[in-house]
Response regulator transcription factor
Amino acid sequence: MKPIKIGIVDDHPIIRDGFKTILEIQDEFLILGTAKNGEEAIKLAESQPDVMLMDIQMPIMDGIEATKIIKKMNPTICILMLTSNSTGQEVIEAISSGASGFLLKDWETAKIIHSIKEALFGNFPFPWSTSSPSAKVKSISWNQLPFPLSSREREIATLLILGYKNEQIASELFLSVGTVKNYITGMYKKFGVKSRRSAILYLNKYI
Protein backbone atom coordinates (compact mmCIF):
# COMPACT_ATOMS: atom_id res chain seq x y z
CA MET A 1 0.00 0.00 0.00
CA LYS A 2 1.40 3.38 -1.04
CA PRO A 3 1.94 5.92 1.75
CA ILE A 4 -0.19 9.05 1.90
CA LYS A 5 1.92 11.95 0.61
CA ILE A 6 1.66 15.05 2.78
CA GLY A 7 2.78 18.68 2.59
CA ILE A 8 2.74 20.89 5.69
CA VAL A 9 2.29 24.67 5.57
CA ASP A 10 2.54 26.97 8.62
CA ASP A 11 4.49 30.13 9.32
CA HIS A 12 5.34 29.08 12.87
CA PRO A 13 8.33 26.69 12.87
CA ILE A 14 7.26 25.00 16.10
CA ILE A 15 3.85 24.11 14.62
CA ARG A 16 5.32 23.19 11.26
CA ASP A 17 8.07 20.99 12.68
CA GLY A 18 5.71 19.54 15.27
CA PHE A 19 3.30 18.25 12.63
CA LYS A 20 6.21 16.95 10.57
CA THR A 21 7.58 15.05 13.55
CA ILE A 22 4.33 13.40 14.61
CA LEU A 23 3.35 12.41 11.08
CA GLU A 24 6.63 11.23 9.59
CA ILE A 25 6.99 8.50 12.21
CA GLN A 26 3.77 6.95 10.88
CA ASP A 27 4.52 4.32 8.24
CA GLU A 28 1.37 5.24 6.33
CA PHE A 29 2.51 8.85 5.71
CA LEU A 30 5.27 10.30 3.55
CA ILE A 31 6.16 13.96 4.21
CA LEU A 32 7.06 15.60 0.89
CA GLY A 33 8.09 18.89 2.43
CA THR A 34 7.09 21.95 4.42
CA ALA A 35 6.40 25.61 3.64
CA LYS A 36 6.03 28.78 5.69
CA ASN A 37 3.66 30.85 3.52
CA GLY A 38 1.16 30.57 0.70
CA GLU A 39 3.65 31.19 -2.08
CA GLU A 40 5.87 28.38 -0.86
CA ALA A 41 2.75 26.20 -0.50
CA ILE A 42 2.01 26.60 -4.20
CA LYS A 43 5.52 25.42 -5.05
CA LEU A 44 5.15 22.52 -2.62
CA ALA A 45 1.90 21.52 -4.33
CA GLU A 46 3.88 20.88 -7.52
CA SER A 47 5.28 17.76 -5.83
CA GLN A 48 1.75 16.29 -6.02
CA PRO A 49 0.89 15.60 -2.35
CA ASP A 50 -2.29 13.73 -1.56
CA VAL A 51 -2.95 16.02 1.40
CA MET A 52 -1.79 19.48 2.38
CA LEU A 53 -2.14 20.78 5.93
CA MET A 54 -2.57 24.52 5.40
CA ASP A 55 -2.42 27.27 8.00
CA ILE A 56 -4.95 30.04 7.38
CA GLN A 57 -3.18 33.18 8.61
CA MET A 58 0.30 33.55 7.10
CA PRO A 59 2.49 36.38 5.75
CA ILE A 60 3.06 37.08 2.03
CA MET A 61 0.07 34.94 1.02
CA ASP A 62 -2.50 33.45 3.39
CA GLY A 63 -3.73 29.88 3.30
CA ILE A 64 -7.11 30.69 1.79
CA GLU A 65 -5.63 32.40 -1.27
CA ALA A 66 -3.07 29.60 -1.64
CA THR A 67 -5.87 27.03 -1.46
CA LYS A 68 -7.75 28.72 -4.30
CA ILE A 69 -4.69 28.63 -6.54
CA ILE A 70 -3.67 25.08 -5.64
CA LYS A 71 -7.18 23.69 -6.22
CA LYS A 72 -7.17 25.27 -9.69
CA MET A 73 -3.76 23.70 -10.35
CA ASN A 74 -4.81 20.29 -9.06
CA PRO A 75 -8.39 19.76 -7.82
CA THR A 76 -7.53 16.30 -6.48
CA ILE A 77 -5.26 17.61 -3.70
CA CYS A 78 -7.04 17.37 -0.35
CA ILE A 79 -6.38 20.57 1.63
CA LEU A 80 -7.07 20.63 5.36
CA MET A 81 -6.92 24.00 7.07
CA LEU A 82 -4.88 24.24 10.26
CA THR A 83 -6.38 26.61 12.79
CA SER A 84 -6.61 27.47 16.45
CA ASN A 85 -9.11 30.31 16.46
CA SER A 86 -10.50 31.08 13.01
CA THR A 87 -13.22 33.65 12.44
CA GLY A 88 -16.49 32.57 10.93
CA GLN A 89 -15.72 34.46 7.74
CA GLU A 90 -12.40 32.64 7.38
CA VAL A 91 -14.20 29.31 7.76
CA ILE A 92 -16.69 30.23 5.04
CA GLU A 93 -13.97 31.52 2.68
CA ALA A 94 -11.85 28.42 3.22
CA ILE A 95 -14.72 26.09 2.38
CA SER A 96 -15.61 28.14 -0.68
CA SER A 97 -11.97 28.03 -1.80
CA GLY A 98 -11.99 24.24 -1.83
CA ALA A 99 -10.84 23.20 1.63
CA SER A 100 -11.70 19.61 2.51
CA GLY A 101 -11.94 20.19 6.25
CA PHE A 102 -10.35 21.77 9.32
CA LEU A 103 -7.88 20.53 11.93
CA LEU A 104 -7.26 22.19 15.28
CA LYS A 105 -3.55 22.65 15.95
CA ASP A 106 -3.83 21.36 19.52
CA TRP A 107 -5.58 18.09 18.65
CA GLU A 108 -4.05 14.84 19.80
CA THR A 109 -2.02 12.91 17.24
CA ALA A 110 -4.59 10.13 16.91
CA LYS A 111 -7.35 12.61 16.09
CA ILE A 112 -5.20 14.38 13.50
CA ILE A 113 -4.37 11.10 11.78
CA HIS A 114 -8.00 10.00 11.86
CA SER A 115 -9.17 13.32 10.37
CA ILE A 116 -6.65 13.16 7.53
CA LYS A 117 -7.91 9.71 6.58
CA GLU A 118 -11.53 10.85 6.93
CA ALA A 119 -10.94 13.70 4.51
CA LEU A 120 -9.35 11.38 1.97
CA PHE A 121 -12.47 9.19 2.14
CA GLY A 122 -14.62 12.20 1.32
CA ASN A 123 -15.74 13.18 4.81
CA PHE A 124 -15.39 16.75 6.07
CA PRO A 125 -13.54 17.13 9.41
CA PHE A 126 -15.00 20.14 11.22
CA PRO A 127 -14.11 20.79 14.87
CA TRP A 128 -16.76 23.30 15.90
CA SER A 129 -20.23 22.68 17.27
CA THR A 130 -23.30 24.82 16.65
CA SER A 131 -22.60 26.68 19.90
CA SER A 132 -19.20 27.95 18.80
CA PRO A 133 -18.63 31.58 17.69
CA SER A 134 -17.49 30.40 14.26
CA ALA A 135 -20.68 28.45 13.73
CA LYS A 136 -23.02 31.24 14.79
CA VAL A 137 -22.22 33.32 11.71
CA LYS A 138 -23.37 30.52 9.46
CA SER A 139 -26.89 31.83 8.92
CA ILE A 140 -28.33 30.65 5.61
CA SER A 141 -30.60 33.05 3.67
CA TRP A 142 -33.31 30.47 3.05
CA ASN A 143 -35.52 32.87 1.09
CA GLN A 144 -32.78 33.31 -1.50
CA LEU A 145 -32.72 29.63 -2.38
CA PRO A 146 -34.30 28.96 -5.81
CA PHE A 147 -36.64 26.42 -4.21
CA PRO A 148 -38.26 26.02 -0.78
CA LEU A 149 -36.90 23.69 1.89
CA SER A 150 -39.03 22.24 4.64
CA SER A 151 -38.22 23.12 8.25
CA ARG A 152 -36.69 19.66 8.70
CA GLU A 153 -34.57 20.04 5.56
CA ARG A 154 -33.37 23.40 6.88
CA GLU A 155 -32.34 21.83 10.17
CA ILE A 156 -30.41 19.08 8.40
CA ALA A 157 -28.84 21.51 5.93
CA THR A 158 -27.62 23.68 8.80
CA LEU A 159 -25.96 20.73 10.53
CA LEU A 160 -24.61 19.53 7.20
CA ILE A 161 -22.81 22.81 6.58
CA LEU A 162 -21.40 22.69 10.11
CA GLY A 163 -19.70 19.41 9.29
CA TYR A 164 -21.96 17.01 11.20
CA LYS A 165 -21.92 13.37 10.09
CA ASN A 166 -25.16 11.52 9.42
CA GLU A 167 -25.01 9.79 12.80
CA GLN A 168 -24.50 13.12 14.58
CA ILE A 169 -27.37 14.74 12.69
CA ALA A 170 -29.61 11.82 13.58
CA SER A 171 -28.69 12.12 17.26
CA GLU A 172 -29.15 15.89 17.30
CA LEU A 173 -32.61 15.77 15.67
CA PHE A 174 -33.81 12.45 17.17
CA LEU A 175 -34.09 10.80 13.76
CA SER A 176 -32.87 7.49 12.40
CA VAL A 177 -29.71 7.50 10.31
CA GLY A 178 -31.72 6.13 7.40
CA THR A 179 -34.15 9.04 7.58
CA VAL A 180 -31.27 11.52 7.60
CA LYS A 181 -29.74 9.83 4.55
CA ASN A 182 -33.06 10.07 2.71
CA TYR A 183 -33.37 13.77 3.47
CA ILE A 184 -29.80 14.44 2.35
CA THR A 185 -30.28 12.44 -0.87
CA GLY A 186 -33.38 14.51 -1.59
CA MET A 187 -31.46 17.75 -1.02
CA TYR A 188 -28.65 16.58 -3.30
CA LYS A 189 -31.25 16.27 -6.09
CA LYS A 190 -32.63 19.74 -5.36
CA PHE A 191 -29.14 21.26 -5.30
CA GLY A 192 -28.06 19.38 -8.42
CA VAL A 193 -25.02 17.90 -6.66
CA LYS A 194 -23.70 14.41 -5.94
CA SER A 195 -21.45 14.80 -2.90
CA ARG A 196 -21.46 16.18 0.62
CA ARG A 197 -18.73 18.71 -0.11
CA SER A 198 -20.59 19.98 -3.19
CA ALA A 199 -23.73 20.41 -1.10
CA ILE A 200 -21.78 22.43 1.48
CA LEU A 201 -20.31 24.64 -1.24
CA TYR A 202 -23.78 25.12 -2.72
CA LEU A 203 -25.25 26.21 0.62
CA ASN A 204 -22.33 28.54 1.27
CA LYS A 205 -23.48 30.67 -1.66
CA TYR A 206 -26.50 31.64 0.43
CA ILE A 207 -24.70 32.54 3.67
The domain at 138-204 is CATH 1.10.10.10 (Arc Repressor Mutant, subunit A). Residues 129-138 have pLDDT under 50 and may be disordered. The chain has two domains: 4-120, 138-204. The longest strand covers residues 29-35.
